[in-house]
Structure formats: C-alpha cells, structure tokens
Inverse folding.
C-alpha cells in the first residue's frame, strides 16, 4: 500500500497546494480532459482548494458522454431486432437516445446484454450461432485495442454472427477543435493519462507548439493531479508551452506500440460525430474495408439509413463538454436533470461532469 499512499499523502498534497498558490500571479484557466480526473478533482476538493489560483474547467473526456445520439439510436434499433443481441458495457445502458435508452429498450423486450469485455460478446456469439451479436464499441484509444482484438478473434473463429457498432473517438482532434473555437478560454491542458498510456504524448508536442498551450500528462490520484497543475502554472507563469509527463510510472513518450499496432490493423482514422461538437475531423475510427463483414452499420445500412435522431433541447451537454458551462450553472441541473432522470449523458455516466457535481458538490443542487 505504500505505492498508493505516496500519491494520496496529505502532507505531500498540502505542500503542492502551497507551491501552486505561491507560483501564480493571476488566475489561470486549466482544462482536465479526462472525466476520471474531473471526478477525482471534485471528490478530493482540489477545485475548491485552488479556486483563487486556477479555474478548472471540464473537457470532453468522458467517452460515453461524447457518443453521438445517432450511434445510441442505432444501438436501440439493433437491440429491438429479432434474433439480434446488442452487447454493451454497463455504463452505456442508461444514456438517453432520441427515444429512451438501452435500459428502457431491454425493459420493453429488446435484447440487451451487459458484458465486461468485448471478448464476452465473441464467446456468446460462438455459442449462439442462431443470433446476431453486436458489440457497441464505445471509448477512446484506451478501449480500441480490446475491440480490435475481439474482431481478430471473431475472424479467427470464422464467426459470421459477430459485429461491431463502432463509436470509438480520438482525443487529440477534439482538443484541436476546442483550441480553434472562437470562445475558447483554455490556457493549459491536463492530458488524459490512460489515453496516453496507449498513444504516448509525442503527438502533443506539435499541438503545444502550434497553439502555445502547455500540455501536462497526469494520472488520477490527488498528488498526480496537483503535480500536473503545478507544472501547468509554472509553465504559464514563465511563458513556456511544452509537453510534460507527470505520469511517468505509466506513460512513455511513444506509448504502447503493440496496442497501437492492433488498433491500426483493424481500424483506420475517420471523421466522427461527437455529442456537442458535431463532426470532428479525424475524430474517430472506423473498421478497415478488409473487416467490413464485422461492421454493423454496413450490414444493416439499408435499414438504418432512414433513422432520425433528436435530443432534448433543455440539455446543455455540448456546453459542459467543451468547458463553456459548469454543470451547476445549467438551469436544469438537479431539477429536471438528475441521475435518476437524466436529460443527457454527462449526468448518468460514471465519468460525466454533471454526475460528479451532483455527487461531490451537493450544495450546488
């Protein structure tokens, strides 16, 4: 437990807090990209402790939250088809689409199966050849290797009844979109450590140079986050804009080459719709043509082309995900939008910013 305690040590955390406060000469605006970081910052009260030194705004770092409504509607439609089973991680079940969620679809008789790994869906497909099994492939670069492996395993087994509904997204293009926005306020980024475990951070070096914005790779424990914040404000105060790795125990500059190889074997980079962002150039992945037989959208293209989508106009998820709005400042927060009755994904996802505020800052409700 010594290793864990080192990154939750109150004395070390207090020292870092004082260093941050003594370093700043103005209040800087920092964005943590990862939803897991958002929850940790609020759970440990770091945002409030540093309120006068930095403004922490919350980015599009929740893969469930940024999954486009159309993708969710496709999942709902697939789950409603005879002899088709929609397999998904549990955190997608309550995310609202245009007309309900996977949970309400299952309650109405739809075939929705919760799995802990895409390989669980492959195994189920191998044991049930009479059913079409579709895995809802959601997530950043972190989960893409696992779904790619599932496709390779299905190919090896010769399965014709296993498909992916691909909704994988890439983090760096979304950061580019944020910096190009005319109302952008971000002055430095806390980069998502778990994504960088796969991708590395070399690509951020050109990004930091182009936009003159510090990027610091951080983990999720209090000391991790405080070290990252200190590095950000130190750079900002000195006029530097560089990439720094404050998560060296897990992240290397070039990332995990094996994971990257698996991703690029199965997927190719493509433009993708993000909830609240619209189409992000090179913002996601799609299956390569040689794996088209495993692509649910291609398999059912003639049926799903006429699907229409809609979102609740009261939901301000796009503003929350781009850092323009704090969840507690949304007029629906804690009123018509709660974890039991969410208007959008950020309130129901385990990494959603709205869910974090609802849980850790009850005075805001």
């Amino acid at each position: 437990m010594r290793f864990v305690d080192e990154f939750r040590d109150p004395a070390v955390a207090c020292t870092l807090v004082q260093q941050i406060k003594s370093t700043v000469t103005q209040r800087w605006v920092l964005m943590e990209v990862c939803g897991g970081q958002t929850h940790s910052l609020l759970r440990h009260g770091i945002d409030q402790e540093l309120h006068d030194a930095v403004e922490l705004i919350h980015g599009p770092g929740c893969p469930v939250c940024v999954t486009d409504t159309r993708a969710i509607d496709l999942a709902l439609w697939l789950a409603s088809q005879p002899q088709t089973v929609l397999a998904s991680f549990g955190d997608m079940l309550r995310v609202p689409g245009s007309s309900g969620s996977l949970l309400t679809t299952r309650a109405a008789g739809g075939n929705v199966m919760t799995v802990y790994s895409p390989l669980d869906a492959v195994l189920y497909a191998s044991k049930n050849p009479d059913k079409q099994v579709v895995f809802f492939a959601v997530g950043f670069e972190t989960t893409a290797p696992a779904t790619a492996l599932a496709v390779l395993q299905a190919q090896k087994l010769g399965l014709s009844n296993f498909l992916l509904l691909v909704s994988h997204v890439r983090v760096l293009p979304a950061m580019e979109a944020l910096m190009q926005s005319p109302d952008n306020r971000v002055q430095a980024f806390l980069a998502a450590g778990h994504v960088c475990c796969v991708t590395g951070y070399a690509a951020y070096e050109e990004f930091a140079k182009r936009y003159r914005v510090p990027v610091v790779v951080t983990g999720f424990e209090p000391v991790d986050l405080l070290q990252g914040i200190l590095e950000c404000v130190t750079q900002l105060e000195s006029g530097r804009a560089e990439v720094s790795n404050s998560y060296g125990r897990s992240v290397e500059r070039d990332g995990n080459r094996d994971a990257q190889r698996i991703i690029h074997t199965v997927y190719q980079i493509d433009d993708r719709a993000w909830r609240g962002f619209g189409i992000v150039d090179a913002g996601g992945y799609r299956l390569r043509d040689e794996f088209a037989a495993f692509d649910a959208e291609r398999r059912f293209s003639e049926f799903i082309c006429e699907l229409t989508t809609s979102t609740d106009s009261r939901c301000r998820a796009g503003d929350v995900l781009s850092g323009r709005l704090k969840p507690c400042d949304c007029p629906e927060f804690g009123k018509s939008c709660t974890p039991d009755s969410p208007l959008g994904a950020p309130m129901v996802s385990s990494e959603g910013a709205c869910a974090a505020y609802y849980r850790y800052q009850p005075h805001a409700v």
Observations:
- DSSP finds 19 helices and eleven strands in the chain.
- The CA atoms of residues 75 and 336 lie 25 Å apart.
- Residues 66-170+273-304 form a domain with the Rossmann fold fold (CATH 3.40.50.11740).
